[in-house]
Amino acid sequence: xxxxxxxxxxxxxxxxxxxxxxxxxxxxxxxxxxxxxxxxxxxxxxxxxxxxxxxxxxxxxxxxxxxxxxxxxxxxxxxxxxxxxxxxxxxxxxxxxxxxxxxxxxxxxxxxxxxxxxxxx
Length: 121
Known about the structure:
33% of the residues lie in helices and 12% in strands. It contains five helices and four strands, in the order ββββααααα. The strands form two sheets. Strands 1-2 form a two-stranded antiparallel sheet. The protein has a two-stranded antiparallel sheet with strand order 3-4. Strand 3 (20-23) and strand 4 (26-29) form a beta hairpin.
């Protein structure tokens, strides 16, 4: 495995490598992680699958607000990610709406999770 500086994607037995990625406590081969991302963003497969991922449903959720505003439909969107909030969490999100919207206003237009942070053209 090629040795790289400590800012690489992951580590393997104390060595930092570019062929693994670590998210939280999970470490997998980069090729496997890339496959998961590729399948997650396959909109055609997801809209026709019996076991779809949330994309594009989450990203295309019609909620009637601009990209820098959050409405109650946005706050329920985690349900599409199989991470449905408890009712108390929904109320907490409502009370933090102003702070959340302030963060959204700082995001450049055209940046989406699907583009990996790159501006869409």
